[in-house]
Amino acid sequence: MAEQWIAGVDLGGTTTKIAFITMDGEIVHKWEIPTDNSNEGQNITTNIATAIAERLSQIDETKDKLAGIGMGAPGPVDYETGIILNVVNLGWKDNYPLKDSLETAASLPAAIENDANCAALGEMWQGAGNGATDLVCVTLGTGVGGGVIANGNIVQGINGAAGEIGHITAIPSGGAPCNCGKTGCLETVASATGIVRLAMAEVNKNESSGELSKLIAVNGKITAKDVFDSARNGDQMANKILEEVSFHLGFVLANIANTLNPEKIVLGGGVSKAGKVLLDAVNEKFAKFAFSAVRDSTELALATLGNDAGVLGAAWLIKNKLNQ
Asked: pLDDT, tens digit, for every residue of 178-209?
């Protein structure tokens, strides 16, 4: 029989990414479907199973072509049982049996992991990790996610909630409220949302003629990308915001590295597309706060897989199970 593929699924609140992936990590087909979170999310796994079956039919393949389905889901996951403990925007009640639901719908073995952990596994397997087995992946998007890999395995913790880097307290007193219920989380200053909040606060207290003020005057808003673009252009206010963001991010990453001494810390997500201007600033702060032996051995790098990290990491879950 020809080599089997794996179905990798990256489940999001509005869109679900699906891919067929070879055992060597090559994506042979990928597509997206809307995530239907109506009726307490009861259609989600059925829709995924249907989409996979329809795509197999379109390419004249049968279900035997697939070794299983790996899925990254947004929320803490009990990896052994495949139960997702709680999730904000998918409609499911707490402790939803996601693995069982997916296996029943698709009639294929499934493995479930947190989506940020899957992104970390994807970068380890096929991306910036480049085979590093001690790796931390930080996803800087609307929020801040994290995945910790030690000796090739995801660190899950006692309740599946390890790696919540976005909720490390960066500002212990007087920090902004976070959606998690705490205040001063890293997410409030290093996510795209947090960066825009910092920028708006700075613009509002400084009646400046800088680039950010002009962008607000023209567009009525600014984005995190605007902040980084303006910083590259030498805008004073944008560079002040970059300094604050990189301070908190570099400080937190240095303390994570002081604890774990990973080979690499990979920055991904939409904010990481700022590239060198962000990486250089964070590296400077990281070097200041990291223990010397850690500073000399842990490399900060930008993620390379983009939106494919999640489906690749999800596929790796099945590949890893087969290899055990």
From this structure: 988 999 999 999 999 999 999 999 988 876 67
- End-to-end Cα, the chain, rounded Å: 21
CA 304 to chain centre: 13
Pairing of strands 110-114, 153-154: unpaired
Tokens of 287: 């070097």
- Of 323, 316, 322, 305, whose CA–CA distance to 8 is shortest? 316
For helices 192-205 and 224-232, the axis angle rounded to 10 degrees is 70
Q: Is 62 buried (19+), middle (13-18) or exposed (0-12) by CB count in 10 A? A: exposed
The string of DSSP letters for 153-215 reads EE---TTS-TT-GGGSBS-SSSPPB-TTS-BSBTHHHHSHHHHHHHHHHHHHH----SHHHHH
Q: Which of 279, 276, 299 is nearest to 135 (CA)?
A: 299
Residue 123 structure tokens: 């970068």
The answer to whether residues 141 and 192 touch, using CB atoms and an 8 Å cutoff, is yes
Look at residue 2 and give its three-state secondary structure: coil
pTM for the model: 0.87
Interval 279-315: pLDDT, tens: 999 999 999 999 999 999 999 999 999 989 999 999 9
- Burial letters 210-238, b for 16+ CB under 10 A, else e: bbbbebbeeeeebebebbbbbbeeebebb
CA 268/CA 275 separation, integer angstroms: 10
Residues 6+ positions from 84 with CB-CB distance below 8 Å: 73, 75, 76, 77, 78, 92, 95, 96, 98, 112
| DSSP letter (8 states) at residue 107 | S
Q: How many helices (H) and strands (E) does the chain have?
A: 11, 13
Q: Is the pLDDT of residue 96 over 80?
A: yes
